[in-house]
Specification:
single chain, alpha/beta, nine-stranded mixed beta sheet, eight-stranded parallel beta sheet, globular, binds zinc ion
Length: 557
């Protein structure tokens, strides 16, 4: 009988998100967030290389690249009072003039949107808004559309190392590599992978990302420095002899699951420590949530501890749920019930929970998820790679809210919107829709990506819409593109025919992370150069051990 997940090659996808103990703290990662910010502030004050003003909230809100060019330092962001009616606006405000403001339920043409102190301060006729903000910087919005920033609710950012491989061999990955690419990364290279993922996210329209893994402290500073709004979902397991997602062959095991109070305690301590160091930092841009890694690696006590931590600290929590056949078979075999029933039995479901995947949930599980108002993070692109169209229509009908995520390899949520739309239409046809191709609509996909995402991370009062008072997390889309002209409905054209290349600027918390396609918060050239070098070394090393057998289709002779 084989051990569950016996030692051997595992791809990042099959690696437990809580992949063992956190990496050893580097001097960088062992600093407290406060001292890190203080150091950044001091460094920023003395920099000479170049200073990049990033839009609203200038001064304390500017980004600087340090001399090495490797990392961006973000000075401490002070919370400033919003200007009251009739008072002059703060310096650094931006007004997007004569533009189109797009929300899932509303498209407003030829209006202006003002950003001040990190928030949307006004939307209205351009002349009126400019009168209120006469000193604001003007961003010519003609031919442009503003959209709420996309919220990626489920990412394993360092897994970009397995791009161009991990998409093609099922789940858990069945291409038996002699060595896992992720295992060949040094701690510094692991941080670099997270930076590559953040760069991709910024360029493809994400403004908030949920990084779900164990040992986030090691890259927390680098990720926060990207300027993205982040949820650090620190992931924990407490099984001694089930290290990660179960494989089909692991179902042959004979020994009972052993839960470890020590692993549980260490994991909850990691969550506690990360929360103390980072929650609410960077003007509230960083949040820390607890995560139980997987249903098959969670004891009832761990589920209860994760939920209790979330409730005590008024945050959300997450878990991978029903992502493979092996998972639900394993849960039936060792707990006598389906994964969702196990979570229900131990009081884990509820509106604070956003569960990732729900690929194989049956009718009973769908009922439990809907009844409990659990939110589902739907990783449509990765589900599609695995050949699965999750029962999203039934989950919606049951009352579950849907949010979107990328999972491994890619961090492009723009592309996920299109795949999620197509996948759900195919699923609805299969489920018996009278008129195939009618639902969902592109507006529904944007709603999932922004409103669903904002609910999932429990920031729906602050994010997910372009409304006065909401935080200024937004995208500027160039609508005069070959992919977008001519067109009927803008959102339809954008989701079906658009490409993230049309995103020219990305603003988070009132600051441009990218402007006119230049990423301001990270050194793109340096990061990509390093990533290319590291990726080549890692894959050369993997392929030294043997070629990968690709199961091609037979071709007609
Ligand atoms: Zn995942």
């Amino acid at each position: 009988m084989s051990e569950p997940n016996a030692p051997g090659p595992r791809s990042p996808d099959s690696v437990d998100p809580d992949s063992g103990p956190p990496q050893p703290a580097t001097p960088e990662s062992s600093r407290s967030a406060e001292s890190d910010e203080a150091r950044s502030e001091a460094r920023a004050a003395s920099l000479t290389r170049r200073q990049l003003l990033t839009g609203a909230g200038a001064g304390a809100a500017a980004f600087f690249l340090d001399r090495s060019g490797l990392r961006a330092a973000v000075p401490t962001e002070s919370i400033q009072a919003r200007p009251g009616p009739g008072r002059p606006q703060q310096a650094g405000a931006v007004v997007f003039t004569h533009t189109t403001v797009v929300d899932p339920d509303d498209v407003r043409d030829d209006v202006a949107l003002a950003v001040s102190d990190g928030r949307i301060a006004a939307i209205g006729p351009t002349d009126d808004v400019l009168r209120r903000f006469p000193a604001a910087e003007r961003y010519d919005g003609r031919g442009k559309a503003l959209l709420p920033g996309l919220i990626n609710c489920h990412a394993h950012m360092a897994a970009v190392i397995a791009r161009g491989f991990n998409e093609d061999f099922g789940f858990p990955n069945t291409a038996d590599l002699p060595v896992s690419p992720g295992s060949l990364l040094s701690p510094e290279e692991n941080v670099l992978m997270v930076q590559v993922a953040a760069l991709e996210a910024i360029k493809t329209g994400t403004t908030t990302i949920v990084q779900n893994t164990g040992g986030i402290q090691a890259h927390a500073s680098a990720l926060a420095d990207s300027g993205l709004r982040c949820v650090f979902a620190e992931s924990v397991r407490d099984t001694e002899n089930v290290p990660g997602p179960v494989t089909p062959h692991a179902l042959n095991r004979t020994e009972p699951i052993r839960f470890s109070p020590k692993l549980r305690q260490e994991g909850m301590q990691r969550i506690h420590d990360l929360f103390e160091a980072w929650h609410g930092k960077r003007n509230g841009r960083i949040q820390v949530f607890p995560a139980a890694a997987l249903t098959e690696t969670s004891s009832p006590e761990l589920l209860q501890a994760v939920r209790a931590f979330a409730e005590e600290n008024d945050v959300g929590y997450t878990i991978h749920l029903n992502q493979s056949r092996a998972e639900f078979q394993f849960m039936q075999m060792y707990h006598g019930m389906r994964p969702t029933a196990y979570l229900d039995r131990h009081d884990f479901l509820g509106p604070r929970l956003f569960a990732a995947h729900a690929r194989y949930v049956d009718d009973g599980e769908i009922h439990l998820l809907g009844r409990s108002r659990t939110i589902i993070s739907h990783q449509a692109a990765m589900a599609g790679n695995r050949g699965v169209a999750p029962p999203i229509p039934a989950l919606r009908a049951a009352g579950a809210r849907i949010a979107l995520g990328t999972d491994n390899n890619t961090n492009d949520l723009f592309e996920v919107m299109r795949i999620a739309l197509i996948m759900e239409r195919i699923r609805r046809n299969r489920d018996g829709d009278e008129i195939p191709g009618l639902q969902p609509q592109p507006e529904d996909m944007l709603a999932d990506a922004v409103q669903g995402g904002a609910h999932a991370i429990h920031q729906e009062t602050e994010l997910g819409a372009l409304e006065e008072g909401k935080k200024a997390d937004l995208l500027v889309v160039d609508t005069r593109r070959a992919t977008l002209l001519p067109r009927g409905r803008f959102l339809s054209a954008l989701v079906h025919c658009g490409h993230p290349d049309a995103i020219e600027s990305n603003m988070v918390d009132g600051r441009f992370l990218m402007r006119d396609r230049e990423v301001l918060s990270m050194d793109e050239e340096q990061i990509l150069g390093d990533a290319e070098r590291v990726g080549r070394r890692v894959w050369n090393r993997v392929l030294e051990e043997g070629t990968v057998k690709v199961p091609r289709l037979a071709r007609p002779s």
